[in-house]
């Protein structure tokens, strides 16, 4: 058990490391050479140009203007200054709403903290149970927690009342936030300019027809069933193989550039490479000739494959993008059922062209159902039993395991020093690798489920990750202290023991966990400081993109366009970062009544993250798609899941404190919360999944009045073509160009492009 | 514990009473005087006419043709003879699918019974645990059950394998049945002739507008947002008060007729009545004059109210029936969201005119959400704590209670004989009354929830009743032997004891129930015979309608039309009878592995009910509405709930038999079952809730081709007018007339009307 002093030390360490990260960031971002790492969003938009073009050569790489170093903290107010409507214009609604999650955390927890410190802390402090116990397992922190209140005391009335107040406050804030975000989404959708997906519906599971091709079948079906609105359709080619060839060509191109750069720098010796795996073995050949020949070969192959895909009817998948004459027609088709057989002619609103996940468009219905079952079972096992394979790997990675598999290493690892390193380090590394790979594993699982847009893939992965965090980080930590101890001890038991202890655990979870909660407060405080403070500060430093950019810059970049591509702005990693925020909501809600001392730490996390991510979405991140905050219902639901968990745990805790008569009173809370969830779902969710006809009608009418001669067919002609068929601008999907001519992103600042960078100076604070 | 002999005696008694009912039915139905009680459906359709019109007068009342008595059983094959397509034409899809539930029971349980008797009975019989025990608590029947297999025996492999086989067979049958019924529904909808609800959408929560009336607002909104399809709309008046006046007038008319009849029979003395409550006190007046005056008064009142409703804008509720030019337009409007605010302009497919529940059309959105929460909580308390108020009433209804409230009765009830009757009879009567009232209570609760059609009210009440039966009849009986013992014992405990024993019960339900199941087999066998055999046989006798018809006939009937109205054909009471069938499914599935001996009794129930209800829907019932088997998804879900319960109970049972290693094997079953449920839901359910555009388009095109000059507006003009505004034919809703000109009901037999009854003979077997 940590004392107050321990916590202070830990806080100091973490604060210092966070400060170090921030100082490093403040220094690095002022160097012109790193400009493209810390302000890539402005480059992508063309508002900021390379500082290389003018000025003395040293200034190109290092910032010598020392006055700017004194103002190293200015990015913080700068990040906060941009008003929200402009932020939505600049970074999109997804990003703007994402940082509102942090703001929501502040809105919920600041009043709760004040109330908890005003009411609960005095009540707990004067409870004085622990003064009598004089036990080593209790620390000063526990004196501020509910543990200090004697069993069966009337003081619990305060805790129950506060549980009610906190529940109502949380629900009220969530309701207001849901309302605001719904309005923002509707405004955003209403103000958007013309986009192909507004007119288009994705049709899947087109039934096979013996007499007609997929294209004819689709055309006939929609001509008959939507006679007034049908405009055209685009068939989907199965171009997965072609996409792989294109990818390979790109990599070969990179190697060729690399060797050409080497040859230019050292013209005396032509670089050589080996033909085998990764250039490590095989016959040695001239590298430039070799890669030139390889590229020629693959260009031919690609042309043949391209020919095959276009001409072979088997390369056409039974899905199509069907476009309508009006947004109204598309809205009708997307929301209605076409055929009496609900497994064919499935229509849904088409994702944005750049949001389409092309690989999954062709999965038949029954296969999809089976895949979903398998993934559901796999998710269950991954969540609850992931320690088993890791334990096996760990046992292999022990000293004995290594000696068995690689006996020649025996003398080396038997050395005392090496041995201690192996023993201390190896068992942990398997777990670390697993946790690093986890988001990728979850994303792969979501892809197997057959979702057709990147945004829905992100949302589905986030749901899986949330379950994992909930079970393994939260409950794992609470029940066993360290997240994985419990499962490890299971592994040492006989099967029947496992079953019994498992049954015992599940039957008594509320009580067991209720007792354990107050004891784990210090553990979670430390966790918040490590993961939430220092971890978030590391985010802004962008160490990995920084290194990669300079490596690419040294070996691959030749033209200004290459440099453009060498930038890796990254994007908000919704699938793994949102579930992490949810953990903080959960911790805050659970401990608000039990150990209010944890709340200030959570508030600092939310405030700090808000500033940092606001800076990042303004200056760095470049989102891959824009879903119009479609993820919000998930966020809302998960906060409420956290609230219900906190209510049930409080119920379990109080029933062990001889306050069982409070059970009915506390049971009311989850019932009300679940009802509130359903109420909000009915009230707001449709704005995120459905498309009101009234709004489409307004936009259609407006457009017909302002642009009576619009040729919609020409506009939509190539919108939904697989990216590999846009042969020349292979890296930029059509909607990307769309985006650029879009008022959504052309902010007021576009005029600066010609003025500021031309003055030769660096503009570290563009906001 | 009942022995085989006890069961045989009980079976004999119940078989005899069932036989007595059937014989009474066979006798009574042959009497011409009862013809309208036992064949009302044919009268309603006008295919059968009163036998009074011709023949000798005795023959009008009593059937003297003794040969017909010898063929008293012929109704059974007659009931089975009508082929299903004709049955659907004759009685509607709802009824035809309802009796298919019994058929489904046969399809599931006949093969299961054969397999269980071939495999499990020998395995159990030779288990011979009970031979050694020689305990009085076990009977011969238990020798056939799983109780006879020793703990930890390998024989349980047979039971687990059978659990798998039964699960797969049940799912397979359910899948096939769902598919058949979906096809039947689609065929039925496709073959239906033109009906107003095909073109009409019910719009609720029309937002208030300061400048426009509801009618104008609706017209403008749909003219703008459905410009090609909107045809017209009908506003809804709040005519609940007017409907009450009309109802009262009808009752006064009945009294007038009654006194007039009395006067005609005894012209010497004019009948007199008292003006007070129910004619029991008050001043005595001439009855005919009094009621004539009363009717005049109410006719005036009604006219004034009718005037007020039509002219007062406040009498218009914010809802409307909006009709479209095509079925396609209506399908689009019903399936899409109209406004970005999902709480206004709510559209759903309009129910049939006669299916509309008019009182609920005006409830605003938030009120609805609160009401639903309250009803959910009320349902919970009704289901789990209904014994508390009944116990209070019971304690009041005891000897002491009566003596306290009505002391003057003391000498009477202190008599020994009266006392024993009171003690034996009164406590039970409160419970009996409650159980009789339960369907009405549940229906009232469903009405409060704000559903707008009678069919959905029936479905919602059935869901509540199912929960009640599941908790109180099934689990109640199993846990405590008699359904209500447990709750009674709760009432005698202190509050904290209750809580503890409640927690204990909930934590160990699977085990407790698992142990109790085999012991309750004989109880359920008796239950099946009383409720399922004799109870169903009583259904066909129609004792209550028989008595009521003859009473009405004696006092109220003057004209042929009065006689028409005196008939009470009744209808399938879906809300309470479907959950009762589900109990048999549940019992069959639970005991199929545990005590297969119960299965033959269930098979007899299903077969017997099938024949009887087939007879009833052909000859008696007159459905109030036709929902096209919209209830099937509920039936399907509840059978699967029963299946999952049976799997969990088997799991609990085996874990007490030292066969815990079977737990993972058995856990697979509920997972698969739930997945199967979701699969079926996605695959079929949309046919019951959505309206495919393709089908509507086909019907529209066909209609346009066959009837190019159809005046749809005139056709729909008065379709959705509140029944009280159809002043003259007050008892017949418009759709009723519709129905009569409908090929749906005019069967081949319509030609017989003129031939057979005109011959003067009785036609007891119309089929």
Automatic annotation (TrEMBL), chains A, B:
Residues annotated as domain CSC1/OSCA1-like 7TM region: 371-654
Keyword terms? Calcium, Ion channel, Ion transport, Membrane, Transmembrane, Transmembrane helix, Transport
Q: Where is the CSC1/OSCA1-like cytosolic domain?
A: 198-360
The molecular function GO annotations come to:
calcium-activated cation channel activity
Enumerate the Pfam families for this protein.
PHM7_cyt, RSN1_7TM, RSN1_TM
Record-annotated CSC1/OSCA1-like N-terminal transmembrane domain positions:
7-177
**Topological relation to the membrane, as annotated:** Multi-pass membrane protein
Q: Where are the transmembrane segments?
A: 12-30, 101-121, 156-175, 373-397, 425-444, 465-484, 583-613, 639-656, 662-680
Its predominant location is membrane
Where in or outside the cell it occurs: the entry states:
Membrane
Where does the record place the region Disordered?
A: 738-767
Give a GO cellular-component term: plasma membrane
The UniProt family comment states: Belongs to the CSC1 (TC 1.A.17) family.
Know the name of this protein? Answer: CSC1-like protein At4g02900
Q: Which species is listed as the source? A: Handroanthus impetiginosus
